[in-house]
Amino acid sequence: MPISPRGFASTSADYGGVLCFLALALASPLSASPLRGVSPRDEKYFMGPVIACRDGSATFAKDRLNDGFCDCPDGTDEPGTSACPESKFYCRNMGDTARFLFSSRVNDHICDCCDGSDEYESGAECPNTCHKDQNASENNTVTVNTESDSFDDLNTQSRNTKIDLENLIKNIRGLRVVIAMQMIVCAIVMVAFCCHHYRHNRIRRRRYFLSR
Questions:
Q1: How far apart are CA 38 and CA 45, in angstroms?
Q2: How far apart are CA 73 and CA 99, in angstroms?
Q3: CA nearest to 148, candidates 41, 38, 72, 53
């Protein structure tokens, strides 16, 4: 049955819409699920509609969690992607020891978590090598809490280091002001001395010519 020009145009428009949708879907960056890379202890921290960066520098909306764009300098908003170099990815490793790793190692084609969760879209084949040990499962919660405490201590140390660095910069700036003031005073003294010496020599010459 022949297709009328109007029907052909309608069919072409439908195909064009489908192709545009597929192109946009392929072009849009893939992102992790919202709570990927978040430890069970920190899940409550990310439950609100607006979340604060842990360093207090900014806030971000819930839909920007793990969206592939770094909004917090400390990487709070990207625990499950490699967008922020300072963020940490949490390997759940069910049946084995949970651990944190730098998010720069997420989707780098290297299996770092024994459950393979860090390579969720790299295409790398990461078999689950976690040991199904009952004792490890029972002690998993204790290990998670210990590593979370260590992670919090690391954040505290980073904040303290940042504060110490800012204080050092302020002290250096104050020292530069003091040195500049001292140089100005020295310059004034030297100019005054040169003027005095010049006037003294001029008076001596005048007396010498008058005595002749």
A1: 10
A2: 22
A3: 41
